[in-house]
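I had to read the description of the data format several times before I understood it. Each protein is reduced to its one-letter sequence and a matching series of backbone shape codes. The format is easy to grasp once an entry is in front of the reader. For illustration, here is how one protein appears when written out as sequence plus structure tokens:
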Amino acid sequence: MFSSSKPHLSPVRSILPPVRCGIRELRHRIQTVDATHKLTEAMKLVAAARVRRAQEAVVSARPFSSNLAAVLADVAQRLQDDGVSTPLTASRPVKTVALVVVTADRGLCGGFNKSVISKAATRIEELKKLGLGCVVISVGKKGNSFFARNGKNSDPFVKVDSFIEIGGFPTAKEAQVIADDVFSLFVSEEVDKVELVYTKFVSLVRFEPVIGPLLPFVNDGNGNCGDGVFRLSTKEGKLALERDVVRFRKEGEGLVLPLMEFEQDPVQILDAMLPLYLNSQILRGLQESVASELAARMGAMAAATDNAVELGKSLSVAYNRERQAKITGELLEIVAGAEALTRNDS
């Protein structure tokens, strides 16, 4: 049902095939390539301008999400020591897994969408081999069209629960729609585990599809101590990258003191904060995916611009050769005609 083939990225071609057509066709192709070059260059600049805003949103959201998870982990650990569990932290035998798959609404971003869909398809195949059911919550037009097309085949292991479109930069409001759907599926025990499939933003030139657990809440113990930020700048009229490091929490640094006492019941604290945690994790995944999409689009448009420049040079050379050959042929015809006239006169 679902194909898990690896994405194939088309590199910039260094050697172009020879061009064989007339002068009029060459002139038309040169104009077309020049217009395409201007279009891809503009799209690259637009993506570069938007990716900075998306990157700042990602970096600013990571400290809150990480610190909130650390606080909830400390509270959940105390409850676990006391033998108390809550609906969102209770682990039960896994029979059905829900996958929240985040893709883009548009194309022209290289292999971004294909890599995410391939990651989700691979995970679905793994769950099928384990004999587990799968419920898909698709976010993004590209993923929606894929799962709508492949969901037509009846598969008892896979069920598409909902199709959600975000559009533009995600906010907490859009994340809450997804969180409500996930919350209802988990609490009603329709699914026993929820995973988020998204693209993690590493830098402007690197991003990778990952699968992160959402529910039940567990502390993975990953304490991020900082993020590498690649900021766009201009040097000599060209785009350049500058790297900074933003630190927000030292690894292993606890946020809740061992002797701290809570005024409210810890169960009430978890019941109130876990939905906020779920919303923040989904919002973070959406923001990471948007930043990765814009970075992928910027790279794809840069490669397309380079290809257009190389193709334009090749077409210009072919056009000049054809034009020179035509002029040379006309001169030879004039010379031959003049010689013929001279012979007739003599």
Notes: The two ends are 86 Å apart (CA to CA).
